[in-house]
Each structure stands twice: as structure tokens, then as C-alpha cells.
Design brief:
alpha/beta, ten-stranded mixed sheet, 11 helices, globular, disordered C terminus
Length: 337
């Protein structure tokens, strides 16, 4: 009878090792698909300069980071190891920013874990980057976290006036062209209040982040795979956003990224046709080679020419003609407002 608790304890320990709580390698790792070292292997700060001005941003494939500022708090909270500046210079163009709202102050959090910074520092970092690289654009999901005021709009506006400029924002719910987006911060607003930019909910999003154990990694990867496969033939007037990140009680972000990033890397590497739209791919602990691989997937002029023939055949001198893609976007927003 006394052996049963011992046997049970042994089984629990083995399970814990398997699902990822024990057995973690704490040494920094830099692989082609995963990087939790302090600095990217190489930088790619101005890759958007080559994208045509008339291309809709929804047609651009770009890398992003989940919980962009989650650099502290231990294995359950940490999702990145590079600073904001390093992420932007490595080629990341989608940021996932979470703010705690207390009496007008917006501090950065991942759950309970304070990330040793405030929203103003994010704004300053983005503005400095866009001043240095004015041909680029940055998309920022912004939401409240670890507070439940439901009223961060006023504080966000205050921080914008204090740490950025009103003119740096994209002031429309419509998807901009690359030419319109250059030098702009596009806020993807996930909170109530007047428009500060686009609405986060207007995107086509796959974010199945709940991964209870490492036994569920394949289910997570299937969600990523399905959404990436749908992106090339999806609505070109709508931004596609796919999160490869995930976490659970027995599967923290590093453990998931070490596995899903490998599958994502192999998936992208196996594709021979880079002439397609995959949308935003949002990751934990991305590597510079993975970021470059994502950037390489861009629509070429000859493909877009066939798709956008109506845009090219607008009536001469019609200043107010709206492209078919924009009409679709306006209709979409009217239905989903």
C-alpha cells in the first residue's frame, strides 16, 4: 500500500517532464527558427522600401511578435528576448502591446508581470524608428491587460500627445496602401472609444493560444497551418493575422515556440512559390532567418496586375473613384461596425 503514492509521484514527475515544466534548457539558443538570445543574428530595417506604393497593406506579408514587450517575469510570462528597437530593426512590423491602466498611467504588462516600461516608451521607440526609416510602417495591436477599467482611450490619447505626434498615426478604418502607410503608426484598436486607427476586430485572425500541454502542440500547429493556407486566396482587402504563439499551465511560451517555430520554418522553407500573400505571422522568439523567410513572401507585379485590373482602369480624371478592394472593405466595415 505504501508503494502506490511513490509510484504515483514518479508518474507525475515523468508527466511534468514530458509536458514541459521540467526538462527546459535554460541556456540561450539561437537557431534558424528560434532565438531567445539578446540580439538578432542580423538586421533588416528597411525591407518595406521595395514594396510598390499602390499595393494595399493587406497584400503584404510581414513578421510580427506576440506580446512584444514581454521580456520579464519568468518562463510563464516571457515571450521575447529582443528589445523593441532590435525587433523593429530585425524586420518585425506588427507589435502586440498590452497596457495596464491605473489612474491615467499605462504600464506594460503580460498578465500579472510588469514589464519594466510604460506605453510612452513604446511610442518613442516606434517614432524614432519611423524617423530613421521613413519608408517603413508599424502596425500595433493595443489592448488593456491586468486592469478592467474598460476606458483607456483618454489615457492613450494623452500618451500619444506626450510621447509621439498626432500626425504619425493612420487616421482611418480603411486599409491603407503602402504609400499611404509609409512613416505611419497604425493602431489596431482593441478598446472602446473614437477611432484612433483601424479596428483590431476587422482583421481575419487565427489566435488559438490555449495550449494546455505539449501533447496539444499538433492541434496548435494545425490551426496555424490552416490559416496560412487560407491567406493566399482570402479577401485581399482584409489583413490576415496568424499567431504561432501559445501557452498553458504545462506548456509555457518558450516550450511552445521551440516546437511550433520549427514546424513553421519547415513549412515556409518547403514552399517553392514565394509570390503569394500570407499576411502577418506573429511569433514568440522568432529568429532573424525566420523573419527574412517571411519577408521573402511578397506578391509580384505581374500577379497583382491581373488581380487589380479594375484599379488600373479607373476613369481618367476621376479624383474620387474608389477601387474595388476599398469598396469591399467599406462594405465589410459597414456590416461589422
Amino acid at each position: 500500500m505504501m508503494l502506490r503514492p511513490v509510484k504515483m509521484q514518479s508518474m507525475v514527475v515523468k508527466l511534468m517532464v514530458f509536458v514541459g515544466v521540467a526538462g527546459l534548457s535554460y541556456g540561450a539558443t539561437q537557431r534558424p527558427d528560434y532565438d531567445d538570445t539578446p540580439n538578432p543574428e542580423f538586421l533588416n530595417p528597411s525591407w518595406m522600401a521595395s514594396i510598390p506604393d499602390d499595393q494595399l497593406l493587406s497584400e503584404v506579408t510581414m513578421p510580427g511578435t506576440h506580446n512584444t514587450m514581454a521580456l520579464y517575469g519568468g518562463i510563464y510570462a516571457e515571450c521575447q528576448s529582443w528589445s523593441l528597437g532590435s525587433q523593429l530593426r530585425a524586420g518585425v512590423r506588427f507589435l502586440d502591446i498590452r497596457v495596464r491602466h491605473v489612474k491615467g498611467n499605462l504600464t506594460l504588462h503580460h498578465g500579472v508581470s510588469y514589464q519594466r516600461a510604460h506605453f510612452g516608451q513604446v511610442l518613442e521607440g516606434v517614432v524614432d524608428f519611423l524617423h530613421e526609416y521613413p519608408n517603413e510602417t508599424v502596425l500595433m495591436r493595443l489592448r488593456e491587460e491586468f486592469s478592467e477599467t474598460g476606458d483607456i482611450y483618454g489615457a492613450v490619447v494623452d500618451y500619444i500627445h506626450r510621447y509621439a505626434t498626432w500626425d504619425v498615426l493612420w487616421h482611418s478604418r480603411l486599409v491603407p496602401t503602402m504609400g499611404e502607410a509609409r512613416g505611419k503608426l497604425i493602431i489596431l484598436q482593441e478598446f472602446s472609444g473614437p477611432d484612433l486607427g483601424m479596428r483590431y476586430g476587422s482583421l481575419d485572425i487565427a489566435d488559438d493560444w490555449k495550449v494546455p500541454t505539449l501533447l496539444h502542440v499538433e492541434q496548435k500547429w494545425q490551426s496555424v497551418y490552416d490559416h496560412l493556407e487560407a491567406a493566399p486566396t482570402g479577401d485581399m482587402g482584409q489583413i490576415f493575422l496568424t499567431y504561432s504563439s501559445g501557452a498553458g499551465v504545462f506548456a509555457y511560451p518558450r516550450a511552445i515556440a521551440q516546437r511550433v517555430n520549427t514546424q513553421l520554418y519547415n513549412y515556409l522553407k518547403a514552399k517553392t512559390d514565394l509570390n503569394q500573400r500570407l499576411g502577418i505571422i506573429c511569433m514568440d522568439f522568432p529568429s532573424a532567418p525566420m523573419i527574412q523567410m517571411i519577408i521573402n513572401f511578397q506578391l509580384k507585379d505581374e500577379i497583382k496586375r491581373g488581380r487589380d485590373i479594375n484599379r488600373d482602369n479607373r476613369k481618367a480624371g476621376s479624383k474620387y473613384t474608389i477601387s474595388p478592394l476599398r469598396k469591399k472593405m467599406i462594405k465589410y466595415l459597414a456590416v461589422n461596425a
